[in-house]
Amino acid sequence: MVIDSPPKVSTSREIRLTAAQAVRENRLWQRHVAMARIGAIPGNGVNRQCLTHEDIRARALLISWAKARGYRVTVDDIANLFIRRAGLDDSAPPIVTGSHMDTQPAGGRFDGIYGVLAGLEALEALDDQGLQTQRPIEVVAWTNEEGSRFSPGAMGSAVFTGARLLEDCLPVTDLEGIRFESALHQTLNATPSLERVPFRRRLGAYIEAHIEQGPELEAKGLPVGIVTGIQGSRWFLVKVEGESAHAGTTSLRARKDAVRSAVNIISALQDMMHDGDDQVRFTVGRFDVTPNSPNTVAEEVMFSIDFRHPDAAVLETKAQRISEISKRFAGPCKATVVETFNRAPSAFGADIVGRLEQAAQDLDIGYQTMASGAFHDANFLSEVCPTAMLFVPCERGISHNPAENAKPEDLAAGTRVLTAALIDLAGTV
Ligand SMILES: [Zn+2]
Prior knowledge:
By secondary structure, this protein is α/β, with parallel strands linked by helices.
């Protein structure tokens, strides 16, 4: 399903340009620098995992910037944070932009936070030009997009849109046994004066700005990518059960070696996943061996599969074969496959994508349309309102890594396109 009926309002090209040109590259860059200090780790990286003290400090800093401008700041029961610039018709569903502020444990300075800071910069650009919009515009920071501390990711946007229930998230624990529920309370208690807003509010539209996390834009020298959709994801856990045995005394023939079987399974899966046009994304990123001793034949292996593709049919056909192949290549061991995540590809609406393209053309900013390889909060939003995304290049496509880097001028170019599209959607009259 594609939701594609953005509000019927309009803004003249001149006003869109005026707003976009008020975006200040240096202000936007300095805010990234200030945020990157919170949870800074060696190598220019950031460790600001969701609902940690660092996350709470980042939220406080964002709130202080928002309040300095007089914006209304609200929060919902999963600590999604909203900064609202009022509209002339303030009861109209808001036009929303934003992303997330949490990072991977060894994350970078731009993933997520760029979308939040670009949104704030857009609001300030409108203020600086004294521009009023018909509809309110809100900047959102979604809770727990990364899923590194509490799995799965994108909890905030999933719960907001009704795709998940808050109650189902509360018992999730991190590696230290801390419940999502208690980390959430701690975060919400840090901002007791913020007004609570409900989940599933009606939104007029959602645009998420993000670094590309891939190498395409940089390679082509383009400052902006306009995203037409997000590829689908299927995640699995494969358990291979064998029998532990002495590495010196047990003959190869007599073994039920879980590592050997797991390696055969992975190799067969890689063959099955191979495609000529290199569209499939297939990753075994976690491989846990029990008992994990150099002198013991492994009793059990647990490995993860992250499989993604933009085409729903390919995703379905190949995912269906994972269990069968795992069993067939398990040899003397037993393989069990459990699916842990299933997300269909999202296609964004032509109207809202078109508005972003128009904004880039008006501003004479080079762009291309593209699909997103990574998962984003926009996946969930696309089910409840017209949604699109906007990418800016990042150095060599490196992300989820302290070396993640982006250029101030590209961040500003993306924010200019965002600002023009937001005022277009919010209307001025
Ligand atoms: Zn992100």
